[in-house]
Amino acid sequence: MADTVFGKIIRGEIPARIEHDDDSCLAFHDVAPQAPVHVLVIPKRPIRALADLGPGDAALVGHLVVVATQIAARLGLADGYRLVVNCGRDGGQSVDHLHVHLLGGRALGWPPG
Ligand code: DGP
Q: The whole model's pTM is what?
């Protein structure tokens, strides 16, 4: 898989505002926030997109989601929030390293564009 900006963040080569760091995932604030809270939760293993996941990745993906919910609670998103995973160009994915967006802190519109 080609290196991405998220690979550079994992390796500490470019700075990010880190919210969570463990053996398998990293969470940091999005550089272009679309809501008062906009955190990205990513696997440390380079997985390009949802479309590249296999059955063996189920625990990892579950971990990303659980970590996102823990961050949401810690950041006080008691009124709700949204988790989004964009996949591929039509899905709006611009960085080819799997990531879960955690968005909250305001009422979010539906449906997304
Ligand atoms: P997506 O469009 O789903 O691939 O989302 C990629 C997100 O990554 C987008 O919301 C902006 C964010 N992003 C891109 N480059 C950087 C960066 O260098 N640092 C941080 N913190 N976020 C970035």
A: 0.98
